[in-house]
Design brief:
The complex is a heterodimer. Chain A is of the alpha/beta class. Chain A folds into 2 domains: 10-115 and 212-233, Peroxisomal Thiolase, Chain A, domain 1 (3-Layer(aba) Sandwich); 139-210 and 236-390, 3-Layer(aba) Sandwich (Peroxisomal Thiolase, Chain A, domain 1). Chain A has helices at residues 28-43, 65-71, 87-100, 139-144, 146-153, 158-176, 190-194, 226-229, 260-273, 278-281, 292-301, 310-316, 332-336, 340-355; strands at residues 10-17, 52-56, 78-81, 106-113, 198-201, 203-204, 214-222, 234-243, 284-286, 369-378, 381-390. Chain A has a 9-stranded mixed sheet, with helices on both faces. A two-stranded antiparallel ribbon of chain A has the order 5-6. In chain A, helix 2 links the parallel strand 2 and strand 3 (78-81). Chain B folds into 2 domains: 6-329, Thiolase/Chalcone synthase (Peroxisomal Thiolase, Chain A, domain 1, 3-Layer(aba) Sandwich); 356-470, OB fold (Dihydrolipoamide Acetyltransferase, E2P) (Beta Barrel). Helices cover 25% and strands 29% of the residues of chain B. Chain B has a 9-stranded mixed sheet, with helices on both faces. In chain B, strands 20-19-18-21-22 form a 5-stranded antiparallel sheet. A 3-stranded mixed sheet of chain B has the order 3-2-14. In chain B, helix 3 links the parallel strand 4 and strand 5. The longest helix of chain B has 24 residues, at 192-215. The mean pLDDT of chain B is 95. Classes of the chains: A alpha/beta, B alpha+beta. The A-B interface holds A 119-122, 124, 127, 129-133, 135-138, 140-142, 144-146, 148-149, 152, 198-201, 245, 247, 249-252, 254-256 and B 339-341, 343-344, 346-347, 349-351, 353-354, 357-358, 373-375, 377, 381-382, 402-410, 416-417, 419, 421, 423, 427-433, 439, 444, 455, 463, 465. Strand 5 (198-201) of chain A pairs antiparallel with strand 18 of chain B, so a sheet runs across the interface.
């Protein structure tokens, strides 16, 4: 019994990504068709060349018909998947396994979310009928629980801690300013971020990712077939997904300065990919920066920084675009917003661009290994996805 | 020989918030009133406050089966649905009890006490009388100034009695005094001179005369006199007529709490009992749609009884609320709804399945590794064994804040919402809302206790559950 992974058995040979934002003139169908056709063209294939589809959406449609209907997919399997904020990544994971198994030659993973049509602010989730005892904390509040716990544990003065969180948001917006597909393409000053209206103390509105619409897609084939489709494919080194036992809200052992699920999925992914020193070996990462304290804690959960020191690395610029390990080079959820089903594939799209040298002003020099990560839920009770992709087999 | 019937235990509840009467005047441009009044928080109602009083009353009571439960209020949260059933579930009373709601008049409080006494006389071992009121009054009116919110509970029995019910008298008259039609939010009242001279004064005088005659007790023999009348002048007139030493008249909490509707006479009684000596006679009388009077004789057992929280302590434990917040809490001032869907109505079947958890705050404890956990689990959070759980109550345990979140985004009638992760002494962790707190003072390590609240009302269903609050 082990998680063996499918290192170097599957490659991505085409990708597409819509612009993310408040796309009032586009519906779910528009977004899906746009992202899918970008991916077909990128891989140089026709829709009918794809043997099976995995569609990730949290709430913008149910069943495979959400995709097969607008694309007029001709009698192929389409599976709709949902795994909270890791939904888009989950679609990719399933497509990769299907190809690796030999069941299909060509698969598409596509994610979409249309958040701005509801008339409500933020995501709306329909809960099953319940006894009325479950908490109703908003997402920013549940992630803000990390801040006082982290500050206290590592003796960080709350003011200093706020500066650290502010710099994370500043860095992501700085990256996003260089990205034509981002929802927000502007640098934001440290002062503006730090003084933004409070949402869930110490988080201000600028510590939160935005709410946007978007879609992204990937074409997946077996590694040995990759060069039939393109010159520089990207190879899947590791795929890990964990749904945690949700013990954080139940157990006094959990201290709200880590995501146990992320630690476990990182360990699994690193084992699959053969990574022993992530701080040195990973060239770049797209992590789930839903709120600034999340990204701070993730640096340590991924072993990018030793425990209690990530805040220092943040202040030193270690994770900046020009730093030793750029994190969220595309601008992250902070600049893209978070259309749930699309985010994981949007992160992979940045890996696709960076590894192929197509990231323009954001280009990182000669990246070898990249990591993408989503987490869904709340601290102590979440799902976590980690992928590692690379430019070469081996 | 007839059995001794009386009070075995009691508990009281005054909500944390106070509205200064001057704050009403400052907003409405009316004369500034004196003192302050107690305000049920946005997440409280007559039932939730009664539960708080009941919990203390049962905690202080010697063991004994409660066989009757009566809830009295003029503000039942449901027009149809037994409020006493909610109280019974929260107090973890067995199903095998007789329970009823008494309402319609502020006199319902003493009427419930008398009915509880009758149940004991009829052979019940213990009767629980819970009284809570949260009366709404129209802005600028006198009742807005004089009313207060609160609750009280009495455990009645025939053994371990601390105050025996020596005699009682009742009168019922039909007259137009205070009324509120179905669907109306605020009560009306008839012109004061009429009710004072033709109803309140004569009724109060007669009912007191009757009860004293029954017990063959002279007014001078009374140690304490508790008069609860809608018009304070009625009480004053009677006290003068009976030549009662003003020092023996109980404080009506007009300046600190306000008149707490059906709960008021009981609340005054709960305040009077701690200092009462064996043999003392206490007279309690209330007038509305008639009058009830009860004569109590304090027993030697009272010296050994200590309420969990005295009325005085509840009055001292307080924090201000602005008049604007109060108007929003009561939905007197309508506010812009949030751009979020309405909360879901809690569903019947899951609520019934989780009754002990939802209402009693009973979690589980693993018999294999001893770890307490909540909500109750099927597989242990610690040792991961299946099916080794036993019920484990958390309602009366204290906890400390492990971390917290100040949520300014969540819709609340009292923003910001404070969420806390709490670790219980003896084990067990829970994440919940914290109420009755000052958000900027919340800190890791603060000690909290649990309180029964109404989280929200959706599609006409009142969703009761538990929250944390700073210790009172």
């Amino acid at each position: 019994m082990a998680s063996k992974g499918i290192k170097d058995r599957v490659a991505i040979v085409g990708m597409g990504c819509t612009k993310f934002g408040e796309l009032w003139d586009k519906g779910t169908d528009d977004l899906l068709v746009d992202a899918a056709y970008q991916a077909f063209e990128s891989a140089g294939i026709e829709p009918n060349d794809v043997d099976a589809y995995w569609l990730g959406t949290m709430a913008s449609g149910i069943s495979g018909l959400t995709l097969s209907e607008p694309l007029k997919i001709q009698y192929k399997p389409v599976t709709r998947v949902e795994n909270m904020c890791a939904t888009g990544s989950e679609a990719l994971r399933q497509a990769c396994y299907a190809v690796a198994s030999g069941a299909f030659d060509v698969a598409m993973a596509i994610g979409v979310e249309k958040l701005k049509d509801s008339g409500y602010s933020g995501l709306v989730i329909n809960n099953p009928p319940n006894d009325g005892t479950e908490g109703s904390m908003t997402a920013p509040a549940s992630f803000s629980l990390l801040a006082p716990a982290y500050f206290k544990k590592y003796g960080l003065d709350p003011d200093k801690g706020k500066d650290v969180l502010t710099r994370i948001a500043w860095k992501n917006h700085k990256n996003g300013a260089k990205n034509p597909k981002a929802q927000f393409q502007k640098e934001v000053s440290l002062e503006t971020i730090k003084n933004s209206p409070k949402i869930a103390d110490p988080l201000g509105i600028m510590d939160c990712s935005g709410v946007s619409d978007g879609s992204a897609a990937a074409i997946v084939v077996r590694a040995e077939d990759a060069h039939k489709y393109c010159k520089n494919p990207i190879y899947i080194k590791a795929l890990s997904f964990i749904a945690g036992p949700a013990e954080g809200p139940l157990s006094q052992d959990y201290d709200f300065t880590t995501f146990s699920e992320v630690v476990a999925s990182a360990k699994d992914a690193y084992a699959q990919a053969g990574i022993t020193n992530p701080r040195e070996q990973i060239s770049m990462a797209e992590v789930h920066d839903c709120f600034t304290p999340t990204e701070l804690v993730l640096y340590e959960d991924f072993g990018f920084s030793p425990r209690g020191t990530a805040w220092q690395d943040v202040m030193d610029g270690f994770f900046d675009l020009e730093g030793k390990l750029p994190v969220n080079p595309d601008g992250g959820l902070k600049s893209f917003g978070h259309p749930i089903g699309a985010s994981g594939l949007r992160m992979m799209y940045e890996m696709w661009l960076q590894i192929r040298g197509e990231a323009g002003p954001r280009q990182i020099k000669n990246p070898k290994l990249g990591l993408t990560h989503n987490l869904g839920g709340a601290p102590g009770r979440c799902v976590s996805f980690v992928s590692v992709v690379g430019s070469q087999v081996g | 020989m007839p059995v001794m019937v009386g009070i075995v235990s009691y508990g009281s509840y005054v909500p944390y918030r106070r509205l200064k009467r001057s704050a009403i005047g400052a907003v409405l441009g009316t004369p500034a009133g004196k003192g302050e009044r107690a305000i049920a928080s946005f997440d409280e109602d007559s039932v939730s406050m009664a539960v708080e009083a009941v919990r203390d009353a049962l905690k202080a009571a010697p063991p004994g089966d409660v066989q009757a439960l009566i809830f009295a209020t003029t503000t039942p949260p449901y027009a149809e649905k037994l409020s006493a059933a909610v109280i019974g579930a929260a107090a973890m009373l067995p199903a095998e009890i007789r329970a009823s709601d008494m309402t319609g008049s502020v006199r319902a409080g003493l009427s419930a006490l008398l009915q509880g006494a009758d149940a004991i006389g009829g052979g019940a071992k213990r009767a629980l009388v819970a009284i809570g009121d949260c009366r709404l009054a129209a802005p600028e009116g006198k009742a807005e100034q004089t009313s207060g919110d609160g609750a009280v509970a009495f455990v009645l029995g025939s053994e371990g009695v601390i105050a025996e019910i020596e005699a009682s008298a009742s009168l019922t008259r039909e007259f137009l005094d205070s009324w509120r039609a179905q669907g109306e939010r605020f009560s009306h009242s008839w012109e004061e001179r009429f009710t004072l001279t033709q109803a309140h004064s004569p009724l109060l005088g007669t009912v007191i005369k009757n009860v004293l005659e029954k017990a063959k007790v002279a007014p001078g023999d009374l140690s304490k006199v508790i008069l609860d009348a809608p018009n304070a002048r009625a009480a004053d007139e009677i006290a003068r007529a009976l030549k009662i030493d003003p020092a023996k008249l109980s404080d009506s909490f007009a300046l600190t709490v306000g008149q707490t509707g059906a709960a008021h006479a009981g609340l005054m009684l709960a305040a009077a009992l701690p200092s009462a000596k064996p043999g003392d006679r206490i007279l309690v009388a209330t007038v509305a749609d008639g009058a009830d009077a009860i004569l109590l004789r304090v027993t030697p057992a009272n010296a050994g009884f200590k309420p969990v929280r005295s009325v005085g302590r509840m009055i001292e434990s307080k924090g201000d609320v602005s008049y604007a917040s109060y108007l929003k809490w009561r939905e007197i001032l309508p506010t812009e709804p949030p751009r979020r869907p309405d909360p879901d109505r809690p569903a019947g079947p899951p609520m019934m399945r989780s009754e002990k958890w939802k209402f009693g705050f009973v979690g589980s404890r693993c018999t294999n590794c001893g770890t307490p956990q909540l909500p109750p689990q099927l597989v242990c959070v610690k040792c991961h064994q299946r099916g080794k759980m036993e019920p484990y109550g958390f309602a009366d345990r204290t906890a400390k804040i492990a971390t917290y979140a100040i949520d300014r985004l969540a819709y609340s009638l009292n923003p910001p919402t404070v969420n806390v992760v709490i670790d219980f002494a003896g084990g067990g962790r829970f994440v919940c809302e914290m109420t009755d707190c000052e958000p900027d003072k919340v800190a890791i390590g603060d000690e909290i206790e649990m309180t029964f609240r109404r989280l929200f009302t959706a599609a006409g269903v009142n969703n009761y559950f538990w929250k944390a609050r700073p210790r009172r």
